[in-house]
């Protein structure tokens, strides 16, 4: 009996040792080209979102790679690959059960933008139903407006939409703009494209595949909390206050 108990105990100890020795997964982090939140500088992905996520991973001691992809591919990989997280992802009721969520890592307003010379007046989102709205194919704004029956004209890159707006190919552009952002000014549209209606305020997250271990997402959350406390989050945002969009066109 003692021998049997000794064998059982030894097996438990061995099992724990193997579990502890098992290496953690190297996370594959995907994002889109959406300056100044994520963009390429040489071969390195930088930006508000990318720098935030990189700092989270460093503080949580999680090995990772970051890759810039078209949004639909970046998002789909996070759904399908067990080692993948995608940012910056809007947390919606439809997506809630699809991911493990870390954040928020940022926030923005959803704004209908229009040509300044048209002087469009909208009081509610329903007032925009008679207009053609430019969206970014497959992103949360596109899905939100489609689900509500709006006439959308999706683009493969969101920065195409200002040009479409100025060419009268669309009447409005459904943009996601951080408060205080100077992106339009840097693109040369400061006096030509204006906000017409803020129709939502959202927070964005790092969305991880459901198979990513809870221990890792918990460590990410703890790292993010420490970044908010010590001012790192604010410093990352202000790092891009003077970023010039033109150099990345």
UniProtKB/TrEMBL annotation:
Gene3D superfamilies found in the cross-reference section: Periplasmic binding protein-like II
Name of the protein this chain belongs to: ABC transporter substrate-binding protein
Annotated InterPro entries: Solute-binding_3/MltF_N
UniProtKB keywords: Signal
SUPFAM superfamilies for the chain: Periplasmic binding protein-like II
Span of domain Solute-binding protein family 3/N-terminal: 31-240
Organism per entry: Massilia norwichensis
Signal peptide boundaries: 1-21
Pfam families in alphabetical order: SBP_bac_3 (PF00497)
């Amino acid at each position: 009996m003692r021998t049997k108990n000794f064998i059982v105990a030894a097996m438990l100890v061995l099992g724990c040792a193997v579990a502890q020795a098992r290496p953690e997964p190297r996370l594959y982090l995907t994002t889109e080209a959406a300056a100044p939140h994520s963009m390429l500088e040489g071969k390195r992905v930088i930006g508000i979102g990318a720098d935030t996520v990189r700092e989270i991973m460093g503080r949580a001691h999680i090995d990772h790679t970051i890759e810039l992809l078209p949004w639909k591919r970046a998002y789909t990989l996070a759904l399908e690959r067990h080692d993948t997280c995608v940012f910056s992802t809007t947390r919606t009721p439809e997506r809630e059960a699809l991911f493990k969520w870390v954040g928020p890592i940022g926030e923005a307003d959803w704004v209908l933008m229009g040509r300044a010379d048209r002087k469009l007046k909208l009081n509610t989102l329903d007032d925009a139903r008679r207009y053609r709205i430019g969206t970014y194919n497959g992103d949360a704004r596109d899905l939100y407006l489609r689900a509500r029956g709006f006439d959308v004209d999706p683009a493969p890159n969101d920065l195409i939409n200002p040009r479409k707006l100025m060419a009268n190919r669309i009447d409005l552009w459904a943009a996601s703009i951080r408060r205080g952002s100077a992106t339009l000014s840097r693109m040369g549209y400061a006096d030509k494209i204006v906000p017409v209606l803020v129709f939502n305020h959202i927070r964005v997250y790092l969305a991880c595949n459901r198979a990513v271990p809870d221990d890792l997402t918990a460590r990410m959350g703890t790292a993010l909390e420490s970044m908010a406390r010590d001012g790192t989050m604010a410093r990352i945002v202000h790092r891009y206050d003077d970023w010039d969009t033109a150099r990345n066109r």
